[in-house]
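User: Could you write out the 3D structure of this protein bound to S-adenosylmethionine? I've included everything you need below.
Assistant: Certainly. Input first, then the structure.
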Amino acid sequence: MRDSEFDFIRSVVYERSRINLGPDKRELVSARLGKRLRATNVDTLEAYCALLRGPGAEAELSNLIDAISTNHTFFFRENAHFDFLRDRAVPEMSARAKAERWARFNVWSAASSSGEEAYSIAMTLDGCAGSWPWQIEATDISHRILAKAQAGIYKDDTVNRLPPDIMRTYFQRGFGPQEGFHRVKAALREKVTFRHLNLLEGEPPFRDPFQVIFCRNVMIYFDRATQEELVGRLSRRLVPGGYLMVGHSESLTHINHPLKMVRPAIYQKPLAS
Ligand SMILES: C[S@@+](CC[C@H](N)C(=O)[O-])C[C@H]1O[C@@H](n2cnc3c(N)ncnc32)[C@H](O)[C@@H]1O
């Protein structure tokens, strides 16, 4: 890949998603672009860049972000967050609910990828929220991955480490042509709304603030200024005293933000703000 092509792809990806592709990502970009060249039937990177500059670029830009971004995720990833949700956030928020007139416990899985995070939150809340209604919003920049999340169908190897009682309660096993696949049961799927959203663009379409936001393993792809902007945006969407969960490799120590760290990778919005 020529320098000019890499620089162009970097700038397009940054503009679209704010994903910051450093020079160390050159190999990865090159490998992932190979798929897009085949899919768009162009022979050279030069021609692909021309396509991205042309009139029909819009759809391909979306595919490019899809190809570049990493969707890796799994059920109950970084389990301490789900324990915290069950043992601290839910009891604390439900004790405040009446005085605050919160009709519902609202959680946002920001950058939800293929849904494992949002459904793990749903399983946790189903087990501990009691009679307090709850709802989960889940968003991602990738249309392709959102379609997968919405379907809620996972292969054996994605769910094989989940305990049998979780499998029995929340999944339907596929038979015949669906053998080897497991679908999240409708009752749980209905508790999660998946929507397309670029976290750094426009205003998220939510009316109510959130008691808890999960925004994990996406900030690592952003530069410092973007991380700061994102944490500011997310903080404004939390109720006072609400919690932000970030990935364990995503310390907020080096950026300015209004939150207080309560545990590694768990931050709280001050009560009086
Ligand atoms: C590695 S996955 C993290 C999934 C999940 N949160 C977890 O921790 O397992 C990162 C996700 O961030 C999404 N993403 C990247 N840039 C984004 C942006 N600007 N707005 C919204 N989502 C974005 C990607 O599409 C991808 O699905």
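The mean pLDDT is 95.
User: Perfect, thank you.
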